[in-house]
Structures are given as C-alpha cells and as structure tokens.
Amino acid sequence: MTYSNTNLTVRALLIVSLLTIGLSFLMTGNSAKVNAIWSFYSLNNQLELDLMTQLTGAFLIVASALSVMVGLNKQLKPLLVFFLLCIAIVPLITLIDGSRWIANLGGFPAIGSGQGIIKYAALIPLALFIGQYKKVSLKTHAWLNMLPVVLVLFWIGGMKFTLLEAQGIESLVATSPFMSWLYDVFSLQMASNVIGVYDLFFACLLMYAVYKKSFGLGVIAIVACGAVFVMTQTFLFTADGAFSSETLITGLGLFVIKDLWFIANLAIIGLYLQENKKG
User: Rounded to an integer, what distance in angstroms lies between the CA atom of residue 189 and that of residue 95?
Assistant: First the structure.
C-alpha cells in the first residue's frame, strides 16, 4: 500500500463515519449524547438542546466534506486538521467528569459512558497524518496511530473481565452470526473473558511488532486487531436498534461506527511496516 492509497483510505473512513454521525445529530437525534458533552462546558444553559445537536451535526458534516475536498485542494488540510482536532479534543476533555466512570466498580479506571468518548482519541493521530505527513517521520506516525488502538483494546478489553461488561455485550454477541457460538461453548462471563484475552493479546502483539519492526508479526496483529473493529461494524446490521428512521443511527450505532477510525489507524501502521520491509 502506498502513501496515496493509505491517505485515501483514511479520508474515506473519515467521510463515512463523520457524515453518518453528523446526519444523525442534524436530524436532532441522539441529543442526549450531545447534551452529555456540552453540559460539561455549561453550554446547555446557553442554547436549546435541539439547536446544539444540529450545530454539532453540521460541524461534523463540514468535516466530512473537507475530507472530500482536501483531495482536490491541499490548502484545505489545515482547516480539516482543525476540525478533526476539535471533534476529538472537546469530548475527550469531558473524561475528567466523574460521571464517565463506574462508581460501584471504584471509578477510574472502570470506564462507563467514557467507552464511547475514548474512541475520539483515534482522530488526533489521523489529523496529524493528514496535515503533517511530510514533516513527521512515518515511524512517529505509526507509533502515534498505535496508541489509540492499544488504548481502546486494553481499556475496553480489560472491562470484558467484569460481569457488568459481560452482561452489556450479551445482546450484541448473541445476535451476531459470527460470535453467537461463544455462548454455546462458554458461559456468559467466560465468553466475555475470551474476548478480553483476545483484545489484550493482539494489542500486545501489535506493540511488539511495531517496536521490532516485524512485518510478519505486524500483519498478523493488524489483521487480528482490525477484525475487532470490522466485527463491531457488523453489529450495525445484526444488533437490534442500531439504525433508526428518525435519527439514522442510535446511541449503539454511534458507539460502533467510531471504530472505523481505528481501522484508519491500523492502515497507517501497516504503511509503516510495509515501508520498513522495503527499507
């Protein structure tokens, strides 16, 4: 894969995800998600919730449009980078709010609603890749893009060992034609544990492969980690209530579609390992 192909892949994944999320907000759906973020900044007292939701949706749609136009006009890169960083940093800051953590499990690092928030971290290295590719070494890009992948696999994967998370994913796993067999073989908790072990193992393998610049192990790790994020996309079609005629996608859909960003992260890591193989 070449840089141009990787760049196109990254932007295509951004276009699909940002447009889908933006349209969902623009249709004044998922307003609770928007309110949870803007209330942290006390802006919910300044604007009507529906208006805030629509403005947020419009901002995301503009970012999606910029992801298209930057392919035709490179001078738009700084503007796209600004939009992506805003989309990422604004919700990430809200992680300092105690409501993001599960109090009955001790709070931090037992992550609750913050599971969807930490996924925004994937956008930061993607913005850097789009805007500063030639000014930053590909090795640095690979490490920066690896961090959010490892973060989410370790954090959310680690939560799989709790009963709360095991119960939380039951409806997703049970309705999946690719994963429902786990409940035929394992108990509810053990099935969740197996998923958690998978996430942690391949996150570790990915780190090792990048550190050792091992193309072979890197391919295995990228495919295995990528399978996690591709699998979650299937939940959009197999889980009940992921889509809605009124809001396009529901809260579940919002949570799932952000995983497209991690596929983009993995594409950049793959480019680095491939270039290293050539060198």
Answer: 27
| Cα dihedral 72/249/242/81 (nearest 10) | 40
Alpha-carbon distance of 254 to 53, in angstroms, equals: 14
Question: For the segment 54-104, what is each residue's pLDDT rounded down to a tens digit?
Answer: 999 999 999 999 999 998 999 999 999 999 999 999 999 999 999 899 988
> What is the pLDDT, as a whole number, of residue 44?
67
Q: Tokens in use for 222?
A: 């990228």
Query: What proportion of the chain, given as a percentage, has pLDDT over 90?
Result: 74
Q: What is the pLDDT of residues 191-214, one digit of tens each?
A: 999 999 999 999 999 999 999 999
pLDDT score at 3? 86
CA–CA separation, 55 and 59 (whole Å): 6
Write the pLDDT tens digit of every residue in 152-182.
999 999 999 999 999 999 999 999 999 999 9
Cα–Cα distances in angstroms (integers) from residue 23 to residues 30, 39, 103, 257, in the given order:
11, 21, 33, 13
Count CB neighbours of 216 within 10 A. 10
DSSP 87: H
Answer for the pair 173, 180: CB distance below 8 angstroms, yes or no.
yes
Average pLDDT of the residues of the chain: 92
Contacts of 15 (CB under 8 A, 6+ apart): 64, 67, 68
Q: H helices of the chain, where?
A: 3-26, 31-38, 49-69, 77-93, 114-117, 123-132, 138-159, 163-168, 170-174, 182-185, 188-212, 215-238, 251-257, 260-278
* CA gap 142, 207 in Å, rounded: 10
CA 89, CA 117: separation in Å to the nearest integer? 10
Burial (CB count <10 Å: 0-12, 13-18, 19+), residue 74: exposed
